[in-house]
């Protein structure tokens, strides 16, 4: 069932969870611009902009089935960039993140077991994303068959055997992972 949904329609400041109460705090002056539906949150990579919320039970996953989905519009693709995730510096605080891998020029979804093990799957079937184009990403972990997967624009699913995802205390971040991997682009309608 749906836990949180951010439409990112706010012009700036706090981004409200339109389904639950997991409102996001801004860092670095995230503004808005045209999105898929109304406004989208705009992230300037060089300004280290992001949105975040401290860890809490409703945003933690653990070894259950879950999914993340939303729209991304990349304005730069020359570096590793995180779209959304819960990924702390300690292995015990790493759960999941959706990101763009510059080295392979692909969107990817990674999950962690909390003790150093990870599984990452890239959207290889879709191929290379262009800057200046909206893409719909759907990322998931299926606990019944222990797989993780990603699809772009409701196309073919790339999947891989997964692992039991941890339930850590890492901060939930949008547009950033830890103190690096800032996004250059826009996000809209994520949940």
Briefly characterize the structure.
With 191 residues, the protein is mainly β.
Could you walk me through the main structural features you see in this protein, from its secondary elements to its overall organization?
- β7 (94-101) and β8 form a beta hairpin.
- The mean pLDDT is 94.
- The protein is globular and about 40 Å long.
- It is 0% helix and 41% strand.
- The chain has strands at residues 25-27, 31-34, 39-43, 50-53, 66-74, 81-87, 94-101, 106-112, 118-122, 134-142, 147-152, 158-161, 172-174, 185-188.
- 38% of the residues are buried.
- The protein has no helices and 14 strands.
- The strands form two sheets. It has a seven-stranded antiparallel β-sheet, with no helix packed on it.
- The protein is mainly β.
List the main descriptive attributes of the protein structure presented here.
191 residues; mainly beta; seven-stranded antiparallel sheet; 0% helix; globular
Layout: helices, strands, pairs:
Elements: E1 25-27, E2 31-34, E3 39-43, E4 50-53, E5 66-74, E6 81-87, E7 94-101, E8 106-112, E9 118-122, E10 134-142, E11 147-152, E12 158-161, E13 172-174, E14 185-188
């Amino acid at each position: 069932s749906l836990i949180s949904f951010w439409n990112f329609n706010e012009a700036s400041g706090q981004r409200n969870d339109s389904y639950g109460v997991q409102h996001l705090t801004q860092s670095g002056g995230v503004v808005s611009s045209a999105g898929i539906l109304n406004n989208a949150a705009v992230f300037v990579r060089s300004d280290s902009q992001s949105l975040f919320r401290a860890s809490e039970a409703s945003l933690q996953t653990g070894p259950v089935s879950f999914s993340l989905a939303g729209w991304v519009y990349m304005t730069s693709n020359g570096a590793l960039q995180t779209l959304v995730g819960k990924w702390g510096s300690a292995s015990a605080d790493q759960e999941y993140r959706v990101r763009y891998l510059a080295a392979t020029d692909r969107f990817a979804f990674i999950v962690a077991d909390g003790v150093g093990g990870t599984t990452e799957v890239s959207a290889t079937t879709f191929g290379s994303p262009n800057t200046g184009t909206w893409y719909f990403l759907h990322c998931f972990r299926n606990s019944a068959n222990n797989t993780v997967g990603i699809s772009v624009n409701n196309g073919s699913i790339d999947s891989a055997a997964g692992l039991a995802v941890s339930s850590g205390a890492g901060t939930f971040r949008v547009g950033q992972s830890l103190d690096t991997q800032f996004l250059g682009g826009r996000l809209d309608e994520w949940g």
